Amino acid sequence: MQKRYAIGDIHGCIRSFRAMIERKLQPENNDVVYLLGDYIDRGPDSKAVVDYIHELQGNSFNLVPLMGNHEYMLIHAMNSFKFYKLWMINSGFTTLKNFGIHVDAFSGPEDVNRIPVSYVVFFRELHLYAQTDGYFITHACFDGQTLDPLNDVDSMIWRRYESYNSGFLQGRILIHGHTPSPLQEIRERVENPESLVINLDGGCVYNNDRNLGYLVALDLDSRKLFWVKNLD
Questions:
Q1: Ordered structural domains, the chain, with CATH
Q2: For the chain, which ranges sit under pLDDT 70?
């Protein structure tokens, strides 16, 4: 029987990501694993996280990686100094360093264009959202007040809403990341049968915060929650 999982923001925490896949979820090839974006920046090895995603896909695992705001910044930083500076401020320099690109100052988009083409293609081909029975899945959120929420890139990448239009969800549950949240809050949302929105960002990379520092995943069928304390 096929299982469906969703994993929150990874942010370069490769050891935690490997542990989640290999020790906790142990997916079969016919299972589906949705990744909620933000594979890069802040953590120790963003390149290794993307390499591991490629490795899993190459071994016929069914991964559905979505785009986070950090991947969005990287892509746009290739042609825009404004986005380049924004990405650098948000730890883009750590990802460039992982690719062997050392930046001493804000030199410009040419730094980003030194990332190998195969990785750039991966970032550009990431989807903004996914749908599966009973669920909408995206990085940040949907704005159900707009006429076409599924084309509202800004909300899916950046926004943080406290309430959601249940009419748009039509009984489906919204799974997202983007906003680091204490593990206990995530557990309470998952355990509440009336929850229409579940945030799976346990702030894995923020290991120095006693309320954060967990990579979190959810079995979408059983509603079982998995977590790995930061190993990086």
A1: 4-68+129-229 (3.60.21.10), 70-125 (no CATH)
A2: 162-166
